[in-house]
Design goal:
The chain is an all-alpha fold. It is 71% helix and 0% strand. Helix 3 runs antiparallel to helix 4 (151-181), helix 4 runs antiparallel to helix 5 (189-222) and helix 13 (370-396) packs across helix 14. The two termini are 36 Å apart.
Length: 500
């Protein structure tokens, strides 16, 4: 009995995934030859307790929890229960916005949530506790030994000299900790900026509770209320005008650690010099800000407008530039996988553009629904992780498990490839057509302007000027996306993960 003929595949159905090629090992990181001498067998010895990851994690969590309890007790004693609650309610306003801004900057290769949680908790608890105790001790020492005749002079010296060094050193400790013990996650300038910014956001949160709580307590004792109260003024200065102050101070430290990780991964002296320079810059910026706070309002606003705001714009542009540089590096580090058969030539180019990534997700969502869009998102995340995996090996040398981790990423990449590869290829073609239409439209408008200029000189009649539309809102009409596969075809072709 002859087998029944197979029905032809539907023209709109996704192609079946090709057979996986053999495991790919980059030539630069190939394993040792078979005849190379082997290392003697390793005898597993019992490690000391302090080398256990569980013991270290437990000790760190206990330290952060203890510092959190102590800082809550100190701030509550300083402000009172009512002042503490008012300060807590007002200080929380800028925190979600700042965290969202840093997460947006880090969306290319997001930091693990545990690293961000550690950074915020360290800034809000440990760094603030150290700063509160050290600043108080230093101010008392200055008042007793140097500025004994003027307590206000001791406070000014403490705010302009002691506090910047103590606070920025305490915040830099979190960046140093993650740089030292989470080096696999700390491999770029963007990582340093994000970790430093999140740490400073936590520090500013606790400090704002203290300042707002003290202001509320003083208003209660003096009977002030409304917009003329000290609480309203403190809220305006610290929450509305300068919520970015502490992140702005600490970002140079994170930037320096990021440069050390990417530019000088194997030069200890250069790393030390760069990080010390970054910390000194953070201390200087903090000192300038604290010194300006003692000036009159016009002088303070002058320094704020001519110095702090331009510096914020420069650092923001620098952070976006660093993120874009990391995005462009994807094309370089993913190119070897084309010859190995894992990627098609269009994918590295498509993955190096956030616009093309978003367009690919939109195409997958309109074509096959939200499950396919999630599959494309996972595919782009895996490709980005693969690129950064090779980038780390290029900067610091391959780890012993480099090939194993690479093969693990490639196998997961192959699982989502039927949706990700097609969506990225279509998105790159659509983006090229959109850019071509935009260029043609600009060329037509230039011709119209040229005709208008000629009419002004010769008096010839004008041609009708075309209206300029938004090319981003005009979807590619020539690109027709196929409908979703029929239910009978979903048994042959694997559905996207998460789709019933």
């Amino acid at each position: 009995m002859s087998p029944s003929p197979q029905p032809p595949p539907h023209p709109c159905a996704l192609p079946p995934p090709p057979p996986p090629p053999p495991p790919y090992t980059p030539p630069a990181y190939a394993p040792c030859a078979a005849h190379a001498p082997t290392a003697p067998p390793h005898h597993h010895r019992r490690r000391p307790p302090w080398q256990s990851r569980t013991v270290r994690a437990t000790a760190l969590i206990s330290l952060l929890a203890l510092s959190g309890v102590l800082i809550i007790a100190l701030v509550r004693r300083e402000t009172g229960t009512e002042g503490f609650l008012v300060g807590l309610g007002l200080a929380v306003f800028p925190v979600p916005l700042l965290i969202a801004a840093f997460c947006w900057l880090d969306r290319l290769e997001p930091e693990p949530w545990r690293n961000l949680a550690f950074a915020f908790t360290w800034g809000a608890c440990a760094a603030t506790l150290v700063a509160l105790l050290a600043n108080g001790f230093a101010t008392d020492w200055l008042a007793a030994n140097i500025a004994s005749t003027s307590p206000s002079e001791a406070e000014a010296w403490g705010a302009a000299v002691i506090a910047p060094f103590v606070e920025e050193t305490g915040k830099a400790a979190a960046v140093l900790f993650l740089y030292r013990f989470r080096r696999r996650d700390f491999d770029g300038i963007t990582d340093g900026i994000v970790i430093a910014g999140i740490t400073a956001t936590g520090f500013a949160f606790t400090e704002n509770i203290l300042y707002l709580g003290n202001a509320f307590g003083e208003d209660q004792s003096l009977g002030h209320s409304g917009l003329d109260s000290l609480t309203a003024g403190t809220f305006f200065i610290r929450i509305i005008v300068s919520p970015f102050a502490h992140p702005l101070f600490t970002i140079p430290t994170g930037l320096a650690f990021g440069i050390a990780a990417t530019r000088y991964p194997r030069r200890r002296t250069a790393r030390t010099a760069v990080t010390a320079l970054g910390l000194a810059t953070s201390v200087l910026l903090h000192a300038v800000w604290n010194a300006s706070a003692t000036l009159d309002t016009p002088d303070f606003l002058l320094i704020y407008g001519l110095f702090m705001v331009p510096l914020l714009l420069v650092l923001t542009a620098l952070a976006v530039w660093a993120r874009n540089q990391e995005l462009r590096s994807l094309r370089h580090y993913l190119t070897p996988y084309i010859a190995a058969g894992w990627l098609v030539p269009a994918e590295p180019t498509a993955l190096s553009s956030l616009k093309t990534r978003a367009l690919a997700r939109d195409i997958a969502h309109r074509t096959h629904g939200p499950a396919a869009a999630r599959a494309v998102t996972e595919y782009t995340a895996l490709a980005t992780a693969l690129s950064f995996h090779r980038r780390r090996a290029h900067l610091t040398g391959p780890t012993p498990d480099f090939t194993t981790q690479e093969h693990h990423l490639l196998q997961h990449l192959r699982h989502y490839q039927p949706w990700g590869q097609r969506a990225l290829t279509d998105a790159l073609e659509t983006a090229a057509r959109q850019d071509e239409r935009w260029a043609n439209q600009v060329h037509q408008e230039d011709q119209v302007h040229q005709e208008e200029n000629e009419h002004d000189t010769s008096g010839a009649p004008l041609s009708k000027k075309p209206t300029r539309g938004n090319p981003r809102s005009q979807r590619s009409r020539s690109h027709t996306t196929p409908p979703p596969p029929r239910p009978t075809e979903q048994a042959t072709h694997r559905p996207p993960p998460g789709q019933a």
